[in-house]
Amino acid sequence: MKPTNILDPNYFHKVVDCQWACPAHTPVPEYIRLIAQERYTEAYMLNWDSNVFPGVLGRTCDRPCEPACRRVRTEEKPVAICRLKRVAADNKGDVTPWLPRVPTTKNGKKVALLGAGPASLAVARDLMPMGYEVHVFDKDPGGGGMMRSQIPAFRLPEAVLDEEVNLILDMGVQTHFNHPITSMKAMLDLGYDAYFVGTGAPRGRDLDLPGRKEVDAHVSIGIDWLSSVAFGHTTGISGKVIVMGGGNTAMDCCRTAVRLGAESVKVIVRSAFEVMKASPWEKEDAMAEGIPIINNRPPKEFVHENGKLKGIVFEVVKPVYGEDGRLRYEPSGEPDEYVECDHVLMAIGQENHCPWIERDIGIEFDKWDCPVLDEVTLQSTHPQIFFGGDAAFGPENIIWASAHAHKAAISMHLFLQGKDLHADRPPEHLNLVSAKMGVHEWAYDSRHDPSARHLVPHADRDKALHDLKLEVELGFDRKLGAQEAQRCLNCDVQTVFTPKLCIECDACVDICPMDCITFTADAEEIDLRQNLTAPALNPEQAIYVADGLKTGRVMVKDEDVCLHCGLCAERCPTNAWDMQRSVVHIPQVGNYSAG
Amino acid sequence: MTFVAKPAVHHPRLPVNDLGLTRRDYEGSVSTLCAGCGHDSVSAAIVQACAELSIPPHRFAKISGIGCSSKTPSYFLNRSHGFNSVHGRMPSVATGANLANKELYTIGISGDGDSASIGLGQFAHIVRRRINMLYIVDNNGTYGLTKGQFSATNDKGSTNKRGAPNLYEAIDLVSMAIQLGASFVARSFSGDKKQLVPLIKAGLMHHGMAFIDVVSPCVAFNNHNGSTKSYEYVRKHSETVVAADYVPAAREITADYAPGTTERVSMPDGSTLHLYKVAEDYDPHNRVEALHYVQSRQERGEVVTGLLYLDPAAMDCHDILNTLDTPLNQLGTGELCPGSSALTAINESFR
Lengths: 595, 351
Hints:
The complex is a heterodimer. Chain A is α/β, with parallel strands linked by helices. Chain A is 29% helix and 17% strand. Helix content of chain B is 30%, strand content 20%. Chain B has helices spanning 38-52, 68-71, 90-100, 112-116, 120-129, 173-180, 193-205, 231-237, 287-299, 317-321, 333-336, 340-349, and strands spanning 60-64, 81-84, 105-111, 133-139, 142-143, 149-150, 184-189, 209-215, 238-247, 262-266, 272-277, 303-310. In chain B, strand 10 and strand 11 form a beta hairpin. In chain B, 48% of the residues are buried. The chains are: A alpha/beta, B alpha/beta. Chains A and B meet through helix 20 and helix 22 of A and helix 1 and helix 8 of B.
């Protein structure tokens, strides 16, 4: 097959599974090494550069990096990446000297950010150091958006959120809080040079079932209810509560209801347990608080008496996997179930919804009522208006908002400087630096740590269940954090092969603990993958092929389960193998010279 | 030399043998030899062969002398018996071990210095006595531990690192082994595990003296242009005459060689040895012709590899001496030391 082009920045970037999986491409192994060295502030700033809200994300991130972690494939459990991020945030020192300088003389261009959630704030952070005058508008009394209104304080303490929001606002962002946005036209009339719409996905879905209208007083939409709790408008809930829905909002609702004094709380979900949208750890945390999750129950009707909710009738279905591997639900034959309740929290999804954007001002919407956007630039069909976060492509999570924001900020900067949004866009690139320090010394801790994933300590359950603001997860302390950091395989320290130096002595083949390396006759990829010492059966993972050997064979390395232990390089007599640290450069406004 | 321990974690789909063990259970500690040493590949081949044979590691006895080669028993079969003996004296110790316990699989590891110089006499006599063992020589043609002087197996005319030629005739251990009574003689190359691993398996299962001369390049002192034991030279000049494939009892053959060139040899344990004649006119059962073939090719600078001579029906030392089947460590004191009356009775029988 064609030899691998290791000059393509994506090749080695992809080997760093966590970084590749992270929408904001946070350099995970690099910051984990900094944590191991107790350089928490640097670890924090490395995160801050990429994902803008390390303290928030270290508690609430959806963690796309963790299922991608190579440890899942070599052993079992991923490195606790998310909680290590929190270790950096919890132990950092003063970050002010590390913050970008914001010019006091502005460049004359004014930008309006609609919504003060993670997407808008991240755009503000990127644009402020470039000299733009940035105005942010939000209906709430403070910044943070859904991070404040939808994530309960027992998962994300207010102080943590305030600190990270203020890092950005204190750059000199002009805030217009308590300012509901009701018309895009009116915003355009204010005459800003560019607009960023980061208004999220603020509309919670409802269910149209018999009896729904009659019991309206006893039904709350999950995200609205959480928001009302967050701002102190709702301080209690009584009686029996049913939470409908299986996502993270449902988990937040049920745990909040318990804390607000509900007599009993049940989560009842239409679908099967394993396909629920909620992250596995959110489900675990809810169950650990004694909240039952009841699955395979589509609701049929609300039962009421004189306008008072009495309960809900559920159908009982059976999940069946068809031959195509798809999940279907069949009638179980069991009688319908009636569950008594006094209050329902509806957490069955949310959508982006912009009734305030007039449809005749040049912003096109598609048939799902989402704005039509250029996926690279996030520019709408109205050249001045950009979208990001949940408002762009529907509900995602905070880390996506940061990723969108960097892209949108680049686009807005190019747009405002009169450049082409595609042609002048800075490219991604990758640097490789040898990690060899001496005969047996590497610039990273190459030893493989076989220990299992460490558990995060939790606050006392009885206390936590009665205190809405007591953070449940205590996070790793420095010692546990250092131990967990050792589990990182340093996948960003790459195995780089130079064929012309190789004498084909097999030393690397013999020492490799994971049987990753094979010297064999060249073949098409599909055959080559089978011909290896350990066949490369994971098509998601590349095989690294190099030709130019004296015998005419090819070197094939399966990237799948490589431990990056460096033993191939250690045992190589000619330095044909070298361990090289790869640094991926994801462009942001300000870190390139585009004007 | 490497200080980093090899991680214990292994490939998630690493095969297990009939005992439920993986290849990794047959490894030793990480090698302290120079990076790129051929001997490490020989160790890896032994590890693989022993794992594939599904013999429990503690059923092996590994015995060596002095030299780079003789350090290698540390790097394979961690959980077996071992004895690192005096220079050139591996055969004496191996003979003793094998006579004391015929149930163990005896592996002798030696080098060209250990077997062709200081231990040449020991080599000759253990082969003559047909001890039931696998005798491997890691042959690199140089004295690596003393910084690269020509060894006794270095070919005449082959040069050292500075370009000076070797002025003496080489000792060919393969020819000697065929002459002196080994019933399984092979030559292989550390860089060719496809050939070496089946040979080691066959040699271990062979009843009698099995000798394998493995050309195993010394990266530090004998891997230059002008050497006849470098990776490049051996790859360019080696010619396989008979490839062997060890097939355990009740298992199908999978190798695809041209029909008509295959011979099946039954082994004492019910398994089969498949011989694939790559050189059509070569007869691995004819001692005289084998010797002639090997030596004539050697004259031309070629390295003949593969299974060169096999006598599957040969007697081993135990057969010749008609020894007891039970290992000595399983006998009681009374049987081992029958007392002076028994000695008297024996002496009487000779009067």
